[in-house]
Amino acid sequence: MRIGSRLNLLIATALLVLAVITVVALSMLRTSILHEKEEKLQGLVELGLTTLDYYGKQVESGTLTKEAAQVAAKRTISALRYEGDNYLFVVDTAYRMLVQPLKPEMEGKDVSEVKDVNGVRVIYELVELAKRDGWNYLGYHWPKPGVPEPVDKLSTARLYAPWGWVLGTGIYIDDVDQTFWGVALVLWDRRRRRHPAAGAVTLHRSFHRASDRSRGRGRQSARRG
């Protein structure tokens, strides 16, 4: 095999390895970002469940009637906010909205048929997920203020069994792709600059330039002769 062919093979192999490493690293990055989002949602829902549990214990102790405790719990949950206007919501297992801070007109209504642009029955699916053990998450597309098209959103919900209430929340995750591709470009550029393939390319070009000069000198010598 000629030196030039070997160098081409070396370059191709190095670039392939670079591509594989980059893809694996970016996949791990995306998974890590989404995991952070899931943990955030979990913490927010746990905060809401703590609130419901507090009022539930008030009922158990006889301090409040169940009706009074539920009214107080709704008021407290409705007032909670994070990162601007993000909120917690509450529905029952019959898919009836109990707490919707931004759209109180929906409270008391059946929301089982509320769907995203792809037909995902958002509230229905969240209630069904909440009935299962562990933490489960629902991805869907939802309108975002200031954005012309629906964007990715991630939600989770948990069942508060004593009252048959399902408490949930969701956050937009369109920033995940922005972060992902921003880091991808930086990571690719850094790896490209540091990878030995760059040196191989330089060596390959230098070899050919040297060969061209050698052939040029040979032709000049032949003409002189």
Protein architecture, described:
This protein is α+β, with helices and mostly antiparallel strands. It has 2 domains: about 5-25 and about 180-220; about 40-180, PAS domain (Beta-Lactamase), CATH 3.30.450. The protein has 5 helices and 5 strands; from the N terminus they run ααββαβββαα. The protein has a 5-stranded antiparallel beta sheet. Strand 3 and strand 4 form a beta hairpin. Helix 1 packs antiparallel against helix 2 (about 65-80), helix 1 (about 5-60) runs antiparallel to helix 4 and helix 1 runs antiparallel to helix 5. The protein is elongated, with a radius of gyration of 30 Å. The two termini are about 35 Å apart. Mean pLDDT is about 80; it is low at about 195-225.
Secondary-structure map:
Elements: H1 3-60, H2 66-79, E1 89-92, E2 97-99, H3 122-130, E3 137-142, E4 151-160, E5 165-172, H4 174-194, H5 196-224
Antiparallel strand pairs: 1-2, 1-5, 3-4, 4-5
